[in-house]
Every structure is written in structure tokens, then in C-alpha cells.
Amino acid sequence: MSEEEYGGLGDWTPEALALPGEVRPVVAAPHPALSRPGGAVDPTAAETVQLAADLIATMRVSPGCVGLAAPQVGVGAQVFAVDVTGHPKALTVHGAFALCNARVVEATRWKPGREGCMSVPDLTGDVKRASRLVVEGELPGTGEPVRLVTDGFEARALQHEIDHCTGLLFLDRVAGAHAVYQRKVYL
After folding, report:
1. N- to C-terminal Cα distance for the chain?
2. Average pLDDT over residues 33-37
3. What is the pTM of this model?
4. What are 130-175's pLDDT values in tens digits?
5. Radius of gyration over every alpha carbon of the chain, rounded to an integer in angstroms
6. pLDDT at 7
7. What are the pLDDT digits (tens) for 103-133?
8. Phi and psi (nearest 5°) for 55?
9. Distance CA 173, CA 156 (A)
10. Count of other CB atoms within 10 angstroms of residue 106
11. Which residue of 20, 26, 53, 103 shows the fewest CB atoms closer than 10 Å?
12. Percent of the chain surpassing pLDDT 90
């Protein structure tokens, strides 16, 4: 089934949530919410829609942030937002969007790359991720099923946020201590 047949993002934008998002504080490791798998959500529930709007609002005021998941604001839920627009490493760009209950259905072309995280502000690490990705999830607000096909940096960002929703940090994916570095630039 193609991205279009399944629903893709279509004309969905964060404005479809019809709610102003509130900026929430981002928790840092070792906060317990970061190591617990988030629960599945009803994408049409008012609290899910508000959470998605809040994630987008928080992401937008955070310099250098290209993704934010519910556990990063202390909420154990499978909801995240991504926007790699304007990032120099981005190839495919779907714009700003939020997904609920997302899962990877196809991952190929694995490559290492450096990652950082707002919840691990002092470190970066080399993580091997798929550079071509197919993800399925649901849009907050409508609950419409989505199938996204992406690559490059956006694929990396999606995997990073899906990991957050399952209780994993990028540090759980590095090959060892030799692949972890002190962050040199603070955003």
C-alpha cells in the first residue's frame, strides 16, 4: 500500500489541532518518564490533541529542536512531534506534524550518525539508524491512519522520537562509551 493509499499526511498541519499549544518544561535524564514505555492513546481524545499541540509549541520555541516526544515532557504516552524543515541534513521533509501510536514497519539502509537530545543536554552520540523508513501511526484530532515514507535526517528524527515513546534514549542505542561525546555547542 502506498503512502497516498494509506492516507499520508495529506493537507494536515498543526493548525488542524485547532488549539493553541502551551510550552511545557522538558525533563532531563534520569527522569523516570524517559525510561518507561508510553501507553497507546486515543488520537481523538481531547487530552491527546492538547498534548500534540503542546509538543509542537514546545518544539517551536526550542532552538535546534527537530522532534519532541510526550515522555520528554513527563507524559507516558505514544505521541510525538517532528519538524526537520530547514535542517541542512534533511532530504525528505513532511513539515511540522504530530503522530500517535507510531511504529516502524520498514527500515533499510542503516547508517551511523551523530545525535543529541533535549533530555540529554550535555551529550551527543553516534547511533546507527535506518536512512530509509516507513512509519505508520495516527493523526491527533482525526485519528486518521498515516503511512509516511521518508529518508535521511527525517527518518533519523522519527526513529529517535519513536524510541522515546518506547522508553529508550539515544544513549541506549550507542555502540559503547567510545561513541558518546560531550556536547560542544549548547543550543
Report:
1. 40
2. 96
3. 0.92
4. 999 999 999 999 999 999 999 999 999 999 999 999 999 999 999 8
5. 15
6. 54
7. 999 999 999 999 999 999 999 999 999 999 9
8. -65, -45
9. 12
10. 12
11. 20
12. 82
DSSP labels, 13-70: -GGGG-S-----PPP-TT-GGGGSPPBP--TTSHHHHHHHHHHHHHHHTSTT--EEEG
Cell of residue 61, nine digits? 520555541
Cα angle value 64/66/86 (rounded, 5°) = 75
Return the exposure string of 38-61: e unless at least 16 CB atoms fall within 10 Å of the residue's CB, then b. beebebeeeebbbbbbbbbbbbee
Check if 15 is active-site: no
Beta bridge pairs of residue 134: 106, 149
Quote helix, strand, coil % in the chain, to nearest 5: 25, 30, 40
Which of 115, 138, 154, 161 is the catalytic position? Answer: 161
Backbone angles phi, psi at 12, to 5 degrees: -65, 135
Q: Are strands 79-82 and 120-138 parallel, antiparallel or unpaired?
A: unpaired
Q: Cell triple for residue 59?
A: 518544539
Residue among 67, 62, 107 at smallest CA distance from 84:
67
